[in-house]
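Entry type: protein chain
Record version: 2
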Amino acid sequence: MDFDAGRARSFAALLSRPRGCGTPDERWAADRVREAFRDAGLETREEWFHFRAAGDATVRVLLLLALGVVGLMWAGGAWWPPVAGFGAAAGVVLA
């Protein structure tokens, strides 16, 4: 079986639409991948796992807040002394 770049591109475009875990769009994409594997003569099996979007959202919010604090400390070292003082009080050294 030869590699068909056009077919690969169309398959990638077909699967590249946004979808969330556990949604009908995700199930649709998994079915397309399974069909492609079967067409290529490969066996497939599903392995289930538990996923909670709340944990992912919490990590994103905390990372954004941490980035904001670091940004304020960095910017404060140059032009806002109260923020730089807060950074020094927290044990952060601005180099």
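Comment: The first helix runs from residue 5 to 15.
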